């Protein structure tokens, strides 16, 4: 639950200076944003909190049907005052950017000089990103300060899906948007599917819009699967097509957790394509479909191996508890076989685990994060993928990622509360929505963990 916070005057002065920065700097020069508790963190006097649900009593913290023993409360971080203020400024800016039809637009690739959000056509990809950000900030279709804006955006997206031609592989006839040119011609359906998965997760079985949303989600899943190449990638590559394919794979994964009709072979192909971009043994990255940028490729590899990496980890942990393997058993195929996993499954999980463990390090290394020396929307998307993958994998390394990344984002926020890219995807609407999704990632801990959760029964 969001609290009303008083931000100390000293921060206001610092924020004005920080907003002048236009690129992420080295970690050593990054403004430190405190995310852990301090001696002054006492009930009723906390300077900050996250927007996530309040922890349940000890013994069932964040207990869900996906978490056998519940989630240790230390996995959830407090968002510091600087981040909370940054989030609210961004949300206020996005709400005002909504068009009359309920959607949001990034504009065309040919006219990137037009930055007024009301002077561009709406598009599904941008609308989906904003809608996900509004949800992550605490609103639903029925409750929250921006329930009305979310409902209008959802209606816009549902109409786009429902009016799409039969056997199409994208939900819009619109072409040449910034997002399509840089990520791929069919990015709209991938991001809309992700939004619908997130939305359905918040609707109970009796909600009047649940059935309609599930039908739309299954339509998107069918489109993604029809648009899949034989290698698991998506047709219609853009400048950094690996990101379109990565988001399509993530959409299939999250749709499956909500009961959508996802073909297991399509999901496997999509994941395998992302893993194939990274050679864990050699530490090399295939960037031919990532515009030559390592960050784009490794963030996709990390994101789409996270759930399987967590599966391996949990299989091994359970096997150790059951006494099937030694306490110091290494993470490899042989250990998995001793734990009762078939050879084929053991090889699959081990590959994902090795890719995840190696790729996540590269995805967070300073030379990779630096990229071009400044950021376009692709960079923001890559940072988002890395952060979500760490949470999905139930990796405590997400805490350090959160501290460093939120500190950097706060430092480059524009005075009006928005962010914009400095190359490629420059749209302030798209970049602001993505940045807000990054800042507020700790609001979605339960939902993200559910995507990677696997339940194991002792034999």
Give a short overview.
By secondary structure, the chain is mainly α. It contains 18 helices and two strands. The chain has a single domain (9-452), classed as Glycosyltransferase (Alpha/alpha barrel).
Helix content: 40-55%
- What is the average per-residue confidence, as pLDDT, rounded to a whole number? 78
Pattern of helices and strands: HHHHHHHHHEEHHHHHHHHH
* Discrete helix count: 18
* Shape call: globular
Model regions low in confidence, pLDDT < 50 over at least 5 residues: 1-69, 285-294, 455-459
Helix/strand-derived category reads mainly alpha
**Number of DSSP strands?**
2
If you had to describe this structure to a student in words, what would you say it looks like?
A hairpin with a 4-residue loop joins strand 1 (278-279) and strand 2. The protein has one domain (9-452): Alpha/alpha barrel (Glycosyltransferase), CATH 1.50.10.20. Strands 1-2 form a two-stranded antiparallel sheet. The chain has 459 residues and is mainly α. The model is unreliable at 1-69, 285-294 and 455-459 (pLDDT under 50). It contains 18 helices and 2 strands. The longest helix is centred in the last third of the chain and has 22 residues, at 343-364. The radius of gyration is 21 Å and the shape is globular. Helix 2 (81-96) runs antiparallel to helix 17 (428-439) and helix 7 packs across helix 8. 54% of the residues are buried.
